[in-house]
Amino acid sequence: MDIRFDGKRALVTGAGRGIGRGVAEGLAAGGAETYALDIIQENLDKVKSENPSMHTVCVDLSDWVATRKAVEEIGPIDLLVNVAGIVSMAPFVDTDESTLDKLFDVNVKAAINVSQVVAKGMIEKGKGGAIVHISSVASKKGIATVAGYCASKGALDQTMRVMALELGPHQIRVNCVNPTYTKTDMINHVINDPIRGPALLAKIPQGRFLEVKDVVHPVLYLLSDKADMINGVTLMVDGGSSVA
């Protein structure tokens, strides 16, 4: 399937590494004028050195005002992917307010904030658009020691449904991609754990953890015109673990 994004302007949050970087590079390779947003300048510098055509924006997404200003300065966007996210591990009874605030600030509020600015621009432009949130299988199933993360991803899924309902009449499609454990810096310590790793792998019928490309490809499809009538879905990318 030939997917191109020529003439489109794209924004990817959390694009300094991992899934975000993979999505940003996929969009740029497909012809989109791509903006990579991340909190770590060093990571953005690496992205820029290897992808000279890409624009980079450094901002702390947990800062509502600074984020809003940064996204507004980018200008109209046709394609948005909210990838930026954090995880924190603790038993439910020990999950404190500060941890919950941090998780919701980045995993939910930042996605809402960026999406509001972008969606308003899409509406004003009048040519529609596509938004994809990177959620998680953790929005669908209970996972011990990550109650706050599960809650934040569940909130992101539900936010997506409301966005799809309200923005659909403007021909703006909004969907979530919900991957299982993916080989990224954020998750590698879990995957490589000699006890947890094999136990988690045993729950994936296809018998392997995700590579970044396994998440990137569905995202690019949902952003493309090939998915023109797909709106308001949570696409599980988990090798069948959700039905095992």
From TrEMBL:
Gene Ontology MF term list: carbonyl reductase (NADPH) activity; L-xylulose reductase (NADPH) activity
Keyword Nucleotide-binding: no
Matches recorded under PANTHER family: D-ERYTHRULOSE REDUCTASE, D-ERYTHRULOSE REDUCTASE-RELATED
One family name in Pfam for this protein: adh_short_C2
InterPro entries: L-xylulose/Carbonyl_redctase (IPR051737), NAD(P)-bd_dom_sf (IPR036291), SDR_fam (IPR002347)
Homology family: Belongs to the short-chain dehydrogenases/reductases (SDR) family.
Keywords annotated in UniProt: NADP
Name under which the protein is recorded: L-xylulose reductase
UniProt source species: Ridgeia piscesae
Top-level taxon of the source organism: Eukaryota
GO biological process: glucose metabolic process; xylulose metabolic process
